[in-house]
């Protein structure tokens, strides 16, 4: 039987090629998803600027809720107590402890002859670039003592004193000690004297500007991290275990030191969730596509299998032959897919780092386990699907199989119909429950509805195709002449074969439109919620790291300005009394200093929002059993636990209510320490827009949305990336399946041509069939996607109208038609290339 299986492979190239490609892509993408999972679990990021110090002590960058439910990255830099530096330095086994302080420093003007031409801050060391610092280039400021953590070596000049800086050689250009430069620190431009030029003795992506240690300590009292050098003979790992560190502070060694150096490497949860969603999506899509393709391949050979049974082959022998030939092709595709896995993983990870989803310094780890997992999962999918198809083909009686080879059966078993209806019911249940959820939960829970809907369509596809041929559609097709009549007949009697083409089109449509419109709807709702409750005619943003107090005071003097408010955005958690509605997902925190919030105040007054105070949504106050005058313990974005007094109950957009804090209080617990925007209410908007604002830009209300949109783009980018890859996979599978189905009909086309049909009439018949299946796949995909998108729209915006450009839908319709129709035309031409009599004598079709 195995020898017979190998012989069969030569005559079923198209069908087996479709199986081969589906498994190759599926196993490669599963290996890539496994690599993302391993990367998220390891979180290896070799340090650069802090690479010379064996041990780094810094605040835990991840927030861990008191109830132990998950974790979330702190939105701000979690710094450590300055007293810890001296404590660590006096610890037995420690040779030295050096504080590392990091803050944005923007070179706004270079003085003397050292103006240079400017260059990108992220260029690596050793490129030979010697241009000077570009005006407005965002750099990183540090205290000079931390230069030995890289280490940096002075090439000219000396260490900086108060009012002096040392420049990275890549920034110096022709600057020399004694030249004057203007550097904006904490939003305020200041003049500094160049004390020296230094070069990093290892590759460091971001150039640095070094200040006197006393000035760095004044700007940033609490260190970002502390570099610990063990004494001679002391093990770094052992020292890390013996250090007495306060709660929330950790010691990092080896590649783990990157967690202390780079922001964004805080918790493995995002990558784990992303890899899980991606891998699950690929596994389900692969299972559906492979099962449909294998089913099509086996069904196309019912005549051969019937003849084998009639000639004495047992059901077991037939099943073994089908399994052997399919496994031969499938395992070959699996092996080649695993070989492509590293390239797929590197490519996807490159897209994530390039899009800012994960830090570029994070190392992509893809060991043996992702490939083992991908191989096992792919083989299980292959073995189960081919086992079902082979069992169904082998158990049928020979005479019945010969009859079905002539007119394939369309009837579905009761078990299959029941399973399909169960998935349809699950889809409806998920969609209905999503309607009553918060926007955050709706996005997490409502997503699988489209996938379960696609599974229901895949199971019931033959029945759906037959039921879709309503009298009106049948009449329209039959009006196209003989080609239309034949198309209707083929669609009815070949419903099972056409189902293999319908399934990937439906899945791709559901994934593409469901993911894209769900994201655009959520993004639109979140931006509207964040901006509609703020009154501002003019918005001022800073290009130098934040809004200094001097700029706020200057804005108050502008003509026609009636109110000014600083705006600070961050995230945090209510811990006392404990709020279990926001655990790993934080409360949005809004810092204000003026009367610009337009949400309804039900009790108290926002005029009292100063000092250590807070305004809560009324529903939250009721749940926590607090009122105006009560005190709360709020964990801010830098891990500081502050006690605040409730001064008002203020409503916000449903599902997006923020906690309101004084801007001064919240800004002090952000990474920059400054507000990010100024909101102006003015009677003379044009005058405010034309005002001279050094280091800042004035614009309309659209800047509010642009500033907030950056945070939402991460989730959207991930969804688009995963959808794009899954759609590409199903698109390729669709092309393969269409080609296999059309090329298998050589005998049919030859018989039609012998009975009087021309090539053109046969081609028209194929195109009509393709249009019906493509249109049906689009409609079913839209319906399945609607079970995801519309409930999310209701939960996010209050009405079932999604947001998003309509051209995306039109573009996807064009993509599907460009996949189906040209593939059908080309393979139809190939199938009709032999003479009719030769086609009838063909061993396949």
From TrEMBL:
| Entry annotated with the keyword DNA-binding | no
Q: Name one GO cellular component term.
A: plasma membrane
Q: Which GO terms describe its molecular function?
A: transmembrane transporter activity
Pfam families the UniProt entry points to: FtsX
Q: ABC3 transporter permease C-terminal domain: which residues?
A: 277-394, 721-823
Q: Does the keyword Flavoprotein apply?
A: no
The main place the protein resides is: membrane
Location(s) in or outside the cell: Cell membrane
State the superkingdom: Bacteria
Q: Where are the transmembrane segments?
A: 271-298, 318-344, 368-394, 415-437, 449-470, 498-518, 717-744, 765-795, 807-827
Q: Which InterPro entries match?
A: ABC3_permease_C, Macrolide_Exporter_MacB
Q: How does it sit in the membrane?
A: Multi-pass membrane protein
UniProt entry keywords in alphabetical sequence: Cell membrane, Membrane, Transmembrane, Transmembrane helix
Family membership, please give it: Belongs to the ABC-4 integral membrane protein family.
Put simply, this protein is called ABC transporter permease
Q: Which organism is it from?
A: Kribbella albertanoniae
């Amino acid at each position: 039987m195995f020898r017979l299986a190998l012989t069969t492979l030569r005559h079923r190239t198209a069908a087996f090629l479709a199986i081969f490609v589906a498994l190759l892509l599926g196993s490669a993408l599963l290996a890539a998803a496994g690599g993302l999972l391993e990367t998220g679990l390891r979180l290896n990021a070799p340090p650069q600027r802090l690479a010379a110090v064996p041990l780094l002590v810094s605040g835990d960058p991840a927030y861990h809720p008191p109830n132990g439910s998950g974790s979330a990255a702190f939105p701000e830099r979690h710094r450590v107590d300055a007293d810890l530096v001296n404590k660590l330095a006096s610890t037995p086994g420690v040779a030295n402890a050096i504080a590392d302080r990091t803050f944005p420093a923007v070179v706004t003007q270079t003085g003397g002859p050292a103006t240079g031409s400017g260059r990108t801050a992220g260029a690596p060391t050793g490129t030979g670039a010697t241009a000077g610092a570009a005006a407005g280039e965002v750099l990183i400021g540090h205290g000079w003592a931390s230069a030995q953590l890289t280490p940096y070596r002075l090439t000219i000049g000396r260490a900086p004193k108060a009012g002096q800086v040392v420049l990275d050689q890549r920034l110096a250009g022709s600057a020399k000690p004694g030249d004057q430069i203007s550097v904006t620190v904490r939003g305020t431009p200041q003049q500094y004297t160049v004390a020296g030029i230094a070069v990093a003795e290892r590759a460091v992506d971001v150039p640095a500007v070094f200040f006197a240690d006393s000035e760095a300590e004044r700007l940033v009292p609490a260190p970002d991290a502390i570099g610990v050098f063990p004494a001679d003979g002391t093990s770094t790992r052992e020292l890390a275990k013996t250090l007495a560190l306060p709660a929330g502070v950790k010691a990092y060694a080896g590649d783990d030191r990157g967690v202390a150096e780079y922001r964004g490497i805080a918790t493995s949860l995002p990558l784990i969730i992303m890899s899980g969603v991606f891998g699950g999506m690929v596994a389900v899509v692969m299972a559906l596509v492979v099962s449909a393709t294998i089913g099509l391949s086996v069904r196309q050979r019912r005549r051969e299998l019937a003849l084998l049974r009639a000639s004495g082959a047992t059901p077991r022998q037939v099943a073994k032959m089908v399994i052997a030939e399919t496994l031969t092709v499938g395992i070959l595709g699996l092996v080649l897919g695993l070989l492509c896995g590293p390239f797929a993983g590197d490519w996807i990870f490159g897209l994530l780092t390039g899009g800012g989803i994960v830090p570029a310094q994070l190392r992509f780890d893809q060991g043996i386990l992702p490939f083992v997992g991908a191989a096992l999962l792919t083989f299980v999918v292959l073995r189960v699907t081919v086992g079902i198809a082979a069992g169904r083909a082998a158990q049928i009686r020979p005479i019945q199989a010969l009859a079905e080879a002539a007119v394939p059966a369309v009837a579905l078993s009761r078990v299959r119909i029941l399973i399909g209806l169960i998935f349809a019911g699950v889809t409806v249940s998920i969609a209905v429950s999503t309607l009553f959820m918060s926007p955050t939960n709706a996005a997490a829970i409502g997503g699988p509805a489209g996938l379960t809907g696609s599974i229901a369509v895949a199971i019931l596809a033959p029945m759906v195709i037959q039921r879709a041929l309503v009298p009106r559609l049948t009449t329209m097709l039959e009006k196209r002449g003989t080609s239309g009549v034949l198309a209707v007949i083929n669609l009815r009697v070949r419903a099972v074969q056409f189902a293999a083409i319908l399934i990937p089109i439906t899945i791709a449509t559901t994934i593409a439109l469901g993911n894209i419109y769900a994201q655009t709807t959520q993004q639109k709702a979140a931006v509207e919620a964040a901006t509609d409750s703020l009154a501002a005619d003019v918005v001022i943003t800073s290009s130098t790291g934040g809004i200094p107090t001097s700029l706020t005071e200057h804005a108050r003097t502008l003509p026609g300005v009636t109110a000014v408010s600083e705006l600070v955005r961050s995230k945090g958690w209510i811990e006392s009394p404990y709020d279990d509605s926001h655990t790993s997902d934080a409360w949005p925190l809004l810092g204000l200093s003026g009367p610009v919030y337009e949400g309804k105040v039900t009790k108290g007054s926002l005029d009292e929002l100063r000092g250590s105070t807070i305004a809560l949504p009324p529903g939250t106050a009721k749940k926590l059993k607090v009122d105006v005058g009560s005190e709360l313990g709020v964990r801010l974005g830098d891990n500081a636990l502050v006690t605040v007094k409730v001064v008002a109950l203020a409503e916000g957009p449903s599902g997006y209510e923020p906690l309101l804090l004084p801007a001064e209080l919240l800004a002090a617990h952000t990474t920059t320490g400054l507000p990010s925007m100024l909101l102006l209410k003015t009677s003379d908007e044009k005058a405010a827009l034309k005002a001279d604002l050094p280091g800042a830009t004035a614009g309309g209300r659209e800047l509010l949305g642009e500033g907030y949109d950056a945070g939402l783009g991460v989730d959207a980018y991930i969804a688009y990336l995963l959808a794009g890859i899954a759609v590409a996979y199903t698109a390729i599978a669709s092309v393969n399946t269409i080609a296999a189905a059309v090329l298998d009909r050589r005998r049919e086309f030859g018989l039609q041509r012998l009975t009087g049909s021309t090539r053109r009439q046969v081609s028209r018949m194929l195109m009509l069939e393709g249009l019906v299946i493509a249109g049906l796949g689009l409609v079913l995909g839209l319906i399945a996607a609607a079970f995801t998108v519309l409930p999310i729209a209701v939960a996010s915006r209050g009405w079932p109208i999604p947001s998003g450009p309509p051209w995306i839908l039109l573009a996807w319709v064009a993509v599907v038609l460009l996949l189906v129709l040209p593939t059908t035309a080309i393979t139809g031409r190939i199938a009709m290339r032999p003479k009719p009599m030769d086609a009838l004598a063909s061993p396949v079709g």
